[in-house]
Every structure is written in C-alpha cells, then in structure tokens.
Amino acid sequence: MLMAYFRRISFLQHLLLALGIRILLVCYSEVHDRNAEVLYTDVDYEVVTDGARHILQNNSPFQRHTFRYSPLLAIILTPNVFCHKSFGKLLFSIFDIFVGILIYKILKEEMLTTINETLKAFYNNLYQVKHFSKQQKVSLPQRYVVLAKNSALFWLYNPLSISISTRGNGDSFSCFFVLATIYFLQKHESSVKQTFYAGLCHGIAIHIRLYPIVFSLSYFLSIANSKTVFQDLLTLRFSKKQWALILGTILSLTTLTSIFYYLYGYEYIYEAYLYHFIRKDTRHNFSILFLTQYLNINFDFSILEKLLISLPQFVVLAVATFTLGRDLRSLSFCIFVQTFIVVAYNSVVTSQYFIWYLAIFPLCLKNLTSMPKRLGFVYFVLWILAQALWLLPAYLLEFKSINTFNFIGVQGVAFFFVKIYLIQKLIKYFDVITRIKTS
Q1: Residue 431's CB: how many other CB atoms inside 10 A?
Q2: 150 and 105 in contact (C-beta within 8 Å)?
Q3: Residue 134, pLDDT score
Q4: What is the rounded average pLDDT of the residues 342-353?
C-alpha cells in the first residue's frame, strides 16, 4: 500500500520528500559527529569551510592545507562561517534536487524531440512535404512523462547521492552544470542562443571540476550540421551553433579563471588544476593504480611513462567520442560512458567520483529497455559486492591500522574489471532508438 501511494504522488511531492530526507540527514549529522568515532561529515567539507574562513579574513583560501578547489566553492560556503556550519550541506542538498529536476526535464525534451522527428519522417514519406507544420506536432504521451519521472527518482532516492551531498561534498554542484549543458543542447528546437547558454554552463563545469573538459568534442560534434566531421575540423567550417558553444565555453571559463588568477596568482592554477595531474593518494582509494602509487611513493614517473599509463584512457575516450558523440540522440549515453571511463581509469578514485556518472545514468535508462530486468539486478548486485569487498580492507586500514595495502590493491584491480565488464554490457544493450510509436 505504501508503494502504491509512493507511485501515485506527484513529481513535486517527490521533490519535497527527497529534500526532506536530506534535511533530516543534515540534522542527524550534527548529532552523529558529536557522539561517534567515525564522522558523518566529509573531511573535504571542513577543508572548504576553512578556505571560506580565509576568504572572509581577506586571505587566500589556499592558505588552508589541502585546499585544492576553485575559490568559487569556498565563496559560496562563506555562510558556513558567519551563519551556520551546515549551510553548505543544505545548499548541496538543494542542488541534488535541482539535478533531479534537470534529469526530468532533459528526458521530456529528448523524448518529445524523438516523437516529433518520428512524426515528421512519417508525414514526409507519406506526403513528400519538406516542412513539418506546428499543427502536426504532438504533446508528450503520459507514459513517457512517467518514464522521465521514474528516471529522476533513481537519482532523488539514490542512497549514494543522498549521503554524498548531506556529508558536505559539492559534486552535485558540478553535476548540475554538466546536466544544464546537456539540457540546453537537447532542448527541443534548440536555438543558437540556447547553445550559447550550454557553452556558458560547460565553461563553469570545467572551472569547478576539470573532468567535464573531455565532453567538449562530443558536445561540439553532436550539434554539427555536416557529416564531414574531420574536414570541418581542419577547415574550421563550423555551424552557428558550434561557434556559439565555443564562445560560451571560452567566455565563462576564461572569465572565472582570470578573476581568481588575478586574486590568487599561480598558486590558484597549481592547486586547483595542475596538482590533479600529479596527485597521489597513498592511503587508499578505488583506483587500479593505487598499489603502484603506494609502492613507488618516492619514485617519480617520467612524462613518457605517465603518457603510456594514460594512453588506454585516451584511446577509449576517443572511440566513445567518435562513435556515440556524433548524434544528439546518443549524446547523454556518450557523456555517461566518457565519465565512467574517466573515473575507472583515474589514478585517484573516491566514492564521490561515482556521483559524476550516477547523475548522468538516469538519462540512459530509456535506452536500456532491451536489457532483461533480471540481468540488471544481477549487474547491480555485482557492483555492490565488488565495492563492499574493497571497503572491508579499506576500513581495516583506516580505522584499525591493520596493514591491508595488498588486499586493497587486489580488490582495486577486481573492482576495475567489474566496472569494465558492466560498461561493456551497458553498451551492448544500449539502443539509440527509444521505440517511439506514432499511434
């Protein structure tokens, strides 16, 4: 009976309920942190809060050791200092809800576009007409509204997304701008102006987190009017939308970066961006490269060695870009696959990194209808099991000071191959045609 009520309530009520759950957990975190040995609040939240405190004192946030984020993040968390320390958790929880709204709106736009393109092709073949009049367009059927809603609920009630934001991690903030970029690109009958907005959002996303930069070529190719991609790239013969995307991205990215470079100099560039190319996490992390980093803590790899280590990631990203990124219908899945690859092959992987692609995954559910539900459940259990087997030796190391480095290394390798197996299966079952019927 409870499940029946859960399915009946409106999307707005789901948004309020999801926000309420997050607010309760933020309140719980205050009690938990005062009484438990293992804190609920993420240590990075304290780091960013200290950075915000330095900004209020007219100092650089980078004076706080291990602050390696955009100063923008510290600025928006300054109320943590003069208002309440849980302000940031509430703010990130609200952005969690915004992400759910964007998922819902993107899917409705994608499916509406698919329906209208299907009808347009039908009438063009039937009457040999060149234009599809506005009178022939239809609204989105209720079953597709439900599909969009259920996909958004996957994010809104996902335990990982809930816990990450309420612990004070700001990845929902960066995910919001990634999804906003997709929204403006996928928007039905998207204009040059909307594509410019997509560029602005993309530039902000790159500024906050570097990883969205790998989506740039996919965004660019997906809105191309021509099929001669390589020739167009060589001759710079781009469409108006492509130029708008480029201009919007450069404008927002360079503006924000220039402002903070003026304020904090080279230290900002190094700590917020360059450091991540040489970062090593020798305590423990999910990366397949963890044990290698731990055993070679006093050894610096040459540039050639680093390039060889990164080569598999670059190759797979390029294949994903040119196979999935050249069509708006498969753009969301392309971004999901690219994000998955970035995280899987990264030299440092923590739990919040999973949020990067979990925010995109609901957009792909409509294209995975050919996957048997039983198999989907098996794949989910396989993922949870692989992660749990990693978490056990990590817990023993972190909180019991037991030497489990080798076990963590082995489990990191096992977890990597599980992830590669799962992404291969998702690609296998991906169907760009969402089986829209005109009847």
Answers
A1: 14
A2: no
A3: 47
A4: 86
Query: H or E segment at 134?
Result: none
Q: Is 67 helix (H, G, I), strand (E, B) or coil?
A: coil
pTM of the entire predicted model: 0.89
Residue-wise pLDDT tens digits, 23-48: 999 999 999 988 887 789 988 999 99
Q: What is the CA radius of gyration of the chain?
A: 23
- pLDDT band of 65, cuts 50, 70, 90: confident
Angle, alpha carbons 144-366-248 (nearest 5°): 95
Structure-token pair, residue 438: 């005109």
DSSP character string of 333-366: HHHHHHHHHHHHH-SS--TTHHHHHHTTGGGGGG
**Residues 6+ positions from 259 with CB-CB distance below 8 Å:** none
Which pLDDT band, with edges at 50, 70 and 90, does 127 fall under? low
pLDDT tens digits, residue range 199-236?
A: 999 999 999 999 999 999 999 998 886 666 666 666 66
Mean pLDDT of 379-397: 86
Distances (CA, A) of 437 to 111, 116, 329, 332, 430: 11, 11, 16, 21, 19
Q: Dihedral angle at the C-alpha atoms of 147, 153, 154, 158, nearest 10 degrees?
A: 180
Which ranges constitute the DSSP H helices of 279-302? 290-295
Nearest CA among 216, 151, 146, 230 for reference residue 181: 216
Report the C-alpha gap between 416 and 382 in whole angstroms.
12
d(CA 416, CA 414): 5
Nearest C-alpha neighbor of 260 from the set 117, 429, 36, 51: 51
For 296-325, b/e burial (b = at least 16 CB within 10 A) is eeeeeeeeeeeeeeeeebeebbeebbeebb
Q: Are 26 and 166 in contact (CB under 8 A)?
A: yes
Interior angle at CA 194, CA 193 and CA 199, nearest 5: 95
Q: How far apart are CA 273 and CA 279, in angstroms?
A: 10
What tokens appear for 398 in the block? Answer: 């972190």
Place of tokens 């560029």: 199
Contact 101, 15 (CB under 8 A): yes
